Amino acid sequence: MNRRITKFLIIANYSKKGAVEAANRVLEYIEDKGLEAKISISDEDIKDGLIREDLIKDAECAIVLGGDGTLIRAVHTIRKHPIPMVGVNFGTIGFLTDVDIEDTQSMIDRLIEGDYETEERMLLSGTVRGVMEERMIALNDIVVARSDALRLIALRISLNGQFFDEYEADGVIVSTPTGSTGYNLSAGGPVVNPKTSLLVITPISPFAMAKKSIVFDADDKVEIELMEKRKDQDDGALVSFDGYENIQLQVGDVVDIRRSKHTVTLLRFSDMNFYERLRSKIRN
Q1: What is the pLDDT of residues 57-83, one digit of tens each?
Q2: How far apart are CA 190 and CA 239, in angstroms?
Q3: Is the pTM of this model over 0.90?
Q4: Catalytically active residues, by annotation
């Protein structure tokens, strides 16, 4: 039996139909049991990219109502207070969100009793040398992509300080196992069990068709340099951290990516394992 949870933070995606109403029902259900809960349902609850201190202080668990994107955003907004998280699915795929909306009350009862499983997910840590003062995290992926919709960019990839390859492509995805079912999958990359520890590098629409995804050790350090392609071409690009934080890049900028020392703890209730979930989601 795990720790009994009695103090909750409820996070809802206000753009999802019914999510705010459901969040208020969750709040009422928890408070009716004599327990503590606070709620975040608007952008006003986020300050400088982080959830307000008064909302997250003392919380033992975050209940996130939305889709996978809502949970990923929540990972970023509570990164200074890495509490366990559980996702309630209002989305369409729901690889990260484990609970259907109709099962929310029984989920809360199980949290209160300590009847749940935990799952640790690795994070990426990334920065742009000389541009960013703070390293950013990513649960799914760090993507370097063109900012011009019509032109390829040139990227030099180094591993552990040594040259590895060069790509002319729309960009490149560095994915965690969690993110393998996201943009990586759409770009033709492999699906990876999220409990593993590794990195997947997948080029996006590479000019050379032989360029494929490659799997690396989780502790490999990846450097991606934006190179000049042609003198008369605007080689602008951007780096995106889970699609949540986007930083503009110039030729010569180097994105440094490595495994984060932090992880994300997801709380699980379903008896369905990853492969069963994968089969059901992809079939739908």
Answers
A1: 999 999 999 989 999 999 999 998 989
A2: 22
A3: yes
A4: 68
